[in-house]
Design goal:
About 5% of the residues lie in helices and about 45% in strands. By secondary structure, the chain is mainly beta. It starts with a helix and ends with a strand. It binds beta-L-arabinofuranose. The site of beta-L-arabinofuranose has 13 residues, from strand 1, strand 5 and strand 12.
């Protein structure tokens, strides 16, 4: 089954190269089912905090059961690092039963993660580092139905928080769902874990869920997922104030290809360009897995027009430019990749994550690697119970030019790490690198990081 799914995903990736209208951007972090991204740009990286759809059963009836938040990040928008689970309920927050659709923000050197306890209240978790560990500072929800100003609200889903800090330092949290009059915004105090005054009611036509706020040229843009009557587009309203006077602006983006269901946007600016991270269901649909609760991340760009409207985003197969080439002469985490076939990740005993369940024929693609004047050696930290596995270093295609082969020697255990090296044929310029795994039957070895010399 595993190989069949990988074959189908591979087939899809091969096909989209020839079919410009095929689907949304390459799935980001395609080895995980992730959804509802919340974006934070910090220190030259964008971090996406996501609902963990790997926790949903693989059928179309079980509903959303996510209890953890997964973080992935990138500095170049093409190669993404999987940081794994950074917050989990009830383990890190005993009052909550679910953690959905998180939204991150940084203030005063601290990191805050807001999440929905399903649709039944909003919690906050804090950390001193973007990757956690996130802990519950309150021991109770930050916003619940009894919070002044939340009710009355007909059948409101009390979830999908998004926190925004205005230029004057005032923080606001937007949230709500399921009804035009069910948008709420509430001021947060400087500590970011307490509210200042009652929630204020806002209305948005066809409001369904996924509140997000961004500001450009002094205009406040409140974007949201519209309801199924409005094809679950990402629509927006704009205003000169963060809490009132919003008028409908149109669509930030239409229903993504290969989705046919809910969507959830995170809007962020990096290198002076606006992006929308979102989810669709291309990985599950391509692999013929029941797709409703198995979503995957995507990314595209959009622009603001000179008149203050938004030019509706185009979903592309590969429309986002790589912001910088990857330097292979510094340690690269094995779980940093642009695409993959067949691999999984897990917590690594040496810290962070490692790639695991590597089988014959699996591969990792790393995009836009700058070889400079050439590399002579490939070094990789691997862990293996037996010798016999290999890492082939190829460029441009999974079966592209072979630069060298690392023959993995036993390290005596799947978490016993050792750096091993092999020679490389010298290559100049910028290439996509494919690390292609070869060996016998079953799981071959684990892989933590690599580097060229
Ligand atoms: O992931 C669960 C829910 O689905 C989110 O809270 C909504 O935004 C929708 O994407």
């Amino acid at each position: 089954m595993k190989n069949r799914i990988h074959f189908l995903v591979l087939l899809f990736l091969a096909l989209i190269g020839f079919t410009p209208k095929a689907s949304a951007d390459y799935p980001i972090v395609s080895h995980r089912f992730l959804a509802d991204p919340g974006a934070m740009v910090s220190n030259g990286r964008v971090y996406l905090y996501c609902s963990n759809d790997d926790e949903n059963p693989g059928d179309d009836r079980s509903g959303y059961q996510m209890k953890s938040i997964v973080c992935v990040s990138s500095s170049d928008l093409k190669n993404w690092t999987d940081h794994g689970i950074v917050f989990e309920v009830p383990k890190n927050c005993s009052w909550a039963a679910r953690s959905w659709a998180p939204s991150p923000i940084e203030r005063d050197g601290k990191f805050f993660l807001y999440f929905g306890n399903g649709g039944n209240g909003i919690g906050v978790a804090t950390a001193n580092n973007p990757l956690g560990p996130f802990v519950d500072p309150l021991g109770k929800p930050l916003v619940e139905n009894s919070t002044p100003g939340v009710q009355p609200a007909r059948n409101m889903w009390l979830f999908d928080p998004m926190t925004f800090i205005d230029d004057d330092g005032q923080a606001y949290m937007y949230f709500g769902g399921n009804g035009d009059d069910n948008v709420r915004v509430i001021k947060l105090n400087r500590d970011m874990i307490s509210v200042d005054g009652p929630a204020i009611k806002l209305s948005a036509q066809n409001f369904f869920e996924a509140s997000w706020m961004h500001k450009e040229n002094g205009i406040y843009y409140f974007s949201y997922s519209a309801n199924p009557r409005a094809q679950m587009r990402i629509d927006y309203m704009k205003s000169n104030s963060p809490t009132s006077g919003f008028t409908y602006g149109g669509a930030v983006s239409n229903q993504p290809p290969l989705n046919d269901n809910n969507n959830h946007q995170a809007i962020f600016k990096m290198n002076n360009q606006w992006y929308q991270a979102y989810h669709n269901r291309v990985v599950a649909k391509t692999a013929k897995i029941a797709p409703v609760y198995k979503r995957n991340l995507c990314l595209d760009m959009f622009k603001h027009n000179p008149d203050g409207t938004i030019e509706t985003m185009k979903n592309t197969v590969d429309g986002v430019a790589q912001l910088s080439n990857l330097n292979p002469f510094e340690r690269v985490e094995a779980e940093t990749m642009n695409a993959q076939s067949g691999i999984y990740t897990e917590i690594c005993s040496a810290g962070g994550m490692n790639v695991c369940k590597i089988e014959n024929g699996d591969w990792i693609k790393v995009r836009g690697v700058d070889f400079g004047k050439g590399a002579k050696k490939f070094e990789a930290s691997v862990a293996s119970v037996a010798s016999g596995g290999k890492i082939e270093v190829r460029i441009d295609e999974p079966n592209g030019k072979l630069l060298g082969t690392l023959k993995v020697k036993s390290t005596g255990g799947l978490q016993n790490w050792a750096a091993q090296t092999s020679k490389l044929k010298s290559t100049n310029g910028v290439h996509d690198v494919y690390l292609v795994f070869k060996g016998g039957e079953g799981s071959l070895f684990n892989f933590d990081w690599w580097k060229m010399n």
